[in-house]
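pipeline/complex-builder :: batch 7 item 3
reading input block
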Amino acid sequence: MVLLQLDPFLNELTSMFERSTEKGSVWVTLKRSSLKSKVQKNKLATAGEAIEYRCLIRATDGKKTISASVGPKDHQRFQASYATILKAHMTALKKRERKDKKKSAEIEKREGSSKRPKKS
Amino acid sequence: MVYITSWDEFLDRSVQLFRADPDSTRYVMKYRHCDGKLVLKVTDNRQCLKYKTDQAQEAKKMEKLNNIFFTLMARGPEVDLSEVTGKEQTDAQPVKKGRGRKQ
């Protein structure tokens, strides 16, 4: 597993999404981690020092695994670019219109009668 | 594990699960483009909560959950989530203003 910097991670995640459009899935895992071994953690704990936790983010397409660690300072910036990537690639999800076309016709009928009294 | 059908229930229970055991709880998002499916999973290796969707509008809810977990994990489980959920409150404010104008 490769621990990447935030921007290379996002780039690699983008290409993972692009590679898996025809078949396959992409998994993204978030976990709270101190990135230290148990021994190191125990040492810190006995020394009475606080353990610094970060958010570990891992992504895999079943063939390759990448990871990055997001700290409290950069999580907001990372979060924003991560959301942008997700939005750009999750295009196979059904849009509202498809389901709502049938539903909205019914709703319009119902709301049509209920809305008019409100306006007046 | 059976999929949870109510988003609010999934959200509440996920945050509870994480706060109960922050060190071993993880949040996994699985996206399958060819089937257009999105599965969210939160587990602490004892309990497993899952939520499945194929609706694009649900992706926005997922974004909120992402934000919540990024905040919880990067800053610590004690963090007040009102900052993250506070955005929803500011969204709701214009509605209140609208009501005021009508009056």
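note: The helical segments of chain B are 7-20, 58-75, 82-102.
queue -> next item
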